[in-house]
Amino acid sequence: MERQKRVGAIHDISCVGRCSLTVALPILSAAGFDTGVLPTAVLSTHTGGFEGFTYRDLTEDIEPISKHWQSLNLKFDALYSGFLGSFAQIDLVADLFKTFGGEDTLVMVDPVMADNGVLYSVYSPEMAKGMAKLCSMADIIVPNLTEAAFMLEEEYVGDDYSQEYIEKTLRKLSDMGAEKVVLTGISFDSAKLGAACYDRKTDSVSYAFNERVEGYFHGTGDVFGSTLLSGLLNNFSLAEATQIAVDYTLKCIQLTVEANQERRYGVCFERALPHLIQRLGLMK
């Protein structure tokens, strides 16, 4: 049997509202990986659509966890970071990448900090600049258009963009350091939505689209990122893994609509896991 790959997922825990670690851990586990977690913060709910949520910053826990992992001589096939709980965590996660990274470790950063032209309430412009530094250390980054604009210190264009703009943005993001870039939430057609990806090694751009479902669905960025990494670690190409992530995210949204699920609680990704397992070729 092939050796089981290990992933280190560095995200917050939202106790209610499916996103971050409560999405990444089950998806990566279902995809066949031994997934360790390093929580950056604990929230009673995620920050979108809820008021009065609690927030506990876990910055002081990161270094002791890292030291214990080092004492165990842990090795990771991938490190995957998302929402960070404080500005100080940027340097701490950068140290994790240096400590546990290497030629055989895929480092993926989802710079979770903004959407629809606006930073999340617990983020600052200073953190946005710091996130750009962290992305420079990654092998692959997965921003949306808002996050790309903040990291490149450019004006957010909203829905007013061309294919030329997207491809120029992909290359500028890659120039920050990451060899591969996946830009999410891309659409050139009102009926389709998906992502654009760039591989600097081959200087190639590709697109992955599927049906657009109107409305905003919380947690889909984390579903997408976790599925993308699952595809890459199961030896699919960047373009193939991106299409798998687009398709699975759509399936989760469709099931949520069918179930008339209240959208602020996240998408019904659990019910779509058999679809993902089959798509990844893991079902015997």
If you had to describe this structure to a student in words, what would you say it looks like?
With 284 residues, the chain is of the alpha/beta class. It has a single domain (6-279), classed as UDP-N-acetylmuramoyl-L-alanine:D-glutamate ligase (3-Layer(aba) Sandwich), CATH 3.40.1190.20. Helices cover 40% and strands 22% of the residues. The protein has 9 helices and 11 strands. The strands form 2 sheets. A 9-stranded mixed β-sheet has the order 3-2-1-4-5-8-9-10-11, with helices on both faces. It has a two-stranded antiparallel ribbon with strand order 6-7. Helix 1 (21-30) runs parallel beside helix 9. The chain starts with 5 loop residues before the first strand and ends in a 5-residue tail after the last helix. Residues 74-261 form the Pyridoxamine kinase/Phosphomethylpyrimidine kinase domain. One of its GO terms (cellular component) is cytosol. Keywords: ATP-binding, Kinase, Nucleotide-binding, Transferase. It comes from Desulfitobacterium dehalogenans (strain ATCC 51507 / DSM 9161 / JW/IU-DC1). Its EC number is 2.7.1.35.
| Strand line-up across the major sheet | 3-2-1-4-5-8-9-10-11
| Strand count | 11
Q: What is the CA–CA distance across the termini?
A: 14 Å
Mean pLDDT: 95
What is the CATH class designation? Alpha Beta
Tell me the quaternary state: single chain
CATH topology annotation: UDP-N-acetylmuramoyl-L-alanine:D-glutamate ligase
CATH architecture level-2 label: 3-Layer(aba) Sandwich
**What is the succession of H and E elements?**
EHEEHEHEEEHEHHEEEHHH
Task: List low-confidence stretches.
Answer: none
Tell me about the largest β-sheet: 9 strands, mixed
- Domain module count: 1
Q: Classify the beta-strand content into a percent band.
A: 15-25%
The structure class reads alpha/beta
Radius of gyration: 18 Å
Question: Which outline best applies?
Answer: globular
CATH superfamily: Ribokinase
What proportion of the residues is helical, as a percent range?
Answer: 40-55%
Number of separate helices:
9
Keywords: ATP-binding, Kinase, Nucleotide-binding, Transferase
Domain Pyridoxamine kinase/Phosphomethylpyrimidine kinase: 74-261
GO molecular function: ATP binding; pyridoxal kinase activity
GO cellular component, one term: cytosol
